[in-house]
């Protein structure tokens, strides 16, 4: 009897240690996603087949940055489901819905003109793209 109780207590201790280790591992992974200090930030909204710089009227505006910039995109969806993607920099937000936001960062380490677009459905073919200019 006493022997069984000891084994049971031992198992509880082992389980508690495993649970603590899992919590620590999970916490460590979240820290990896911490953001750098950006050189340039764009607050974008998306609805219909257009991106906008928040508060401005121009549809799918040129986004201009300097080579080497840490670029931060804060995307807010104001209609439909969309994401924001630039293939050449492996930059892509999640596909998100009305009222949701997602933030990504990437380093614009190559100069030139690159297409940013929405990868949802046929949005890109229907005109939901613009130009990221890296000077
Ligand atoms: Cu879209």
Give a list of the ligands.
Answer: copper (II) ion
Number of helices: 1
Span between termini: 77 Å
Q: What profile does the largest beta sheet have?
A: 4 strands, mixed
* Mean pLDDT rating: 88
Using the CA coordinates, give the radius of gyration: 22 Å
Structural class: alpha+beta
Order of helices and strands: HEEEEEEEEEEE
What does this structure look like?
With 135 residues, the chain is an alpha+beta fold. It has two domains: 1-34; 40-134, Sandwich (Immunoglobulin-like), CATH 2.60.40.420. The chain contains one helix and eleven strands. The protein has a four-stranded mixed sheet, with no helix packed on it. It has a three-stranded mixed sheet with strand order 3-11-10, with no helix packed on it. The protein has a two-stranded antiparallel sheet with strand order 5-8. A hairpin with a 4-residue loop joins strand 6 and strand 7 (91-92). The longest helix has 31 residues, at 2-32. The N and C termini lie far apart (77 Å). The site of copper (II) ion has 5 residues, from loops.
């Amino acid at each position: 009897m006493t022997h069984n109780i000891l084994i049971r207590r031992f198992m509880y201790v082992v389980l508690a240690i495993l649970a603590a280790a899992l919590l620590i591992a999970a916490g460590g992974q979240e820290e990896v996603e911490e953001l750098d200090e950006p050189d340039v930030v764009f607050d974008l909204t998306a609805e219909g087949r257009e991106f906008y710089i928040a508060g401005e009227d121009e549809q799918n505006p040129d986004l201009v940055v300097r080579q080497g910039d840490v670029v931060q995109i804060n995307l807010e969806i104001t209609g439909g489901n969309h994401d924001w993607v630039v293939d050449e920099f492996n930059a892509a937000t999640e596909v998100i819905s009305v009222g949701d936001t997602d933030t990504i960062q990437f380093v614009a380490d190559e100069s030139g003109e690159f297409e940013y677009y929405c990868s949802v459905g046929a949005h890109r073919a229907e005109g939901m793209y613009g130009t990221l200019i890296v000077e």
